[in-house]
Amino acid sequence: MNPYSDFSIPAFDQFLIWLSATDLRLFFYRFQDWDWLFVFVHVASAAILFGAILIVDLRLMGVMRKLDVRELARLALPWAIGAAGAAIASGVVLLLFDPISVGVHTYFLPKMALILLGLANAFAFHRIVRLEGTDTRTTTARFAGAVSIALWAGVFLCASLNSTERISATSHAEMTNESSPQH
Fold first, then answer.
1. Do 140 and 40 touch, CB atoms closer than 8 A?
2. 105, 122, 133, 174: which could join 162 in a potential S-S bond, CB 3.0 to 4.6 Å?
C-alpha cells in the first residue's frame, strides 16, 4: 500500500485502513482546516523538546562544564515534559486527519520507533542514573548523552525525510494498474 517505496507492513496497512474509518478520525477530520495550527504546534513543541534534551545531554557529554547538571536538568525537565505532551498530542491529531496519507510514509514507523526508544532512554536514565549522583566525567554519562542526542536527531531526520518524500513512479504505476479494471 506504500506509494513511496516497496516497503510495506500489511498489518500496519490494515491498521491505517481501520483507523481511517473510526469515529475518532471522523471527529478530528472536522478540524482539518486548522491543520496548519496543529503542524505549527507539532514542530514548535518538538523543537522545544529537542532543545531541552540537547542542552542537558551536551552537558552530560562534558560541554559547558561550569553549569551544574542537576540545576540544568531541573530547569529543562518541565519544558521537555510539556513539549513532549504537546508534540505527542498534536502528532496524534495530525495522524488522525489522514491516517493512510501520513502513516504510509517510508520513515513514519522508524520515527515512531525512535520516539519510543528516546522516551524509554529518558525514563531509564532518570530512573537508574539519578542526576543527583551523576559524575559527568564518566564514560557512562557521556555515552548516555550521545545516545539520547542520536535518538532524537534520528526522529527529526525521519520527519524531514517523510516531509520531502515523493511518490515513487514505479510504485504509483503498479498501484494504478492494480486498481484499474482489467480489459
1. no
2. 105
Q: Which three cell numbers stand for residue 26?
A: 471522523
Per-residue pLDDT tens listing for the chain (183 residues): 667 666 778 899 899 999 999 999 999 889 989 999 999 999 999 999 999 999 999 998 888 888 888 888 889 999 999 999 999 999 999 999 999 888 888 899 999 999 999 999 888 877 766 665 556 667 877 888 899 999 999 999 999 998 888 876 555 445 555 555 655
C-alpha span between 73 and 80 (Å, rounded): 10
Burial environment of residue 78 by CB neighbours within 10 A (0 to 12, 13 to 18, 19 or more): exposed
Domain count, the chain: 1
Q: Which of 93, 107, 94 is nearest to 157 (CA)?
A: 107
Q: Provide the residue range defining the domain that includes 92.
A: 10-165
For residues 131 and 67, what is the distance between their CA atoms, to the nearest angstrom? 13
Residue 2 lies in a domain: no
Grid cell for residue 77 = 525537565
Return the exposure string of 141-165: e unless at least 16 CB atoms fall within 10 Å of the residue's CB, then b. beebbeebbebbebbeebbebbeeb
Q: Is residue 18 part of a domain?
A: yes
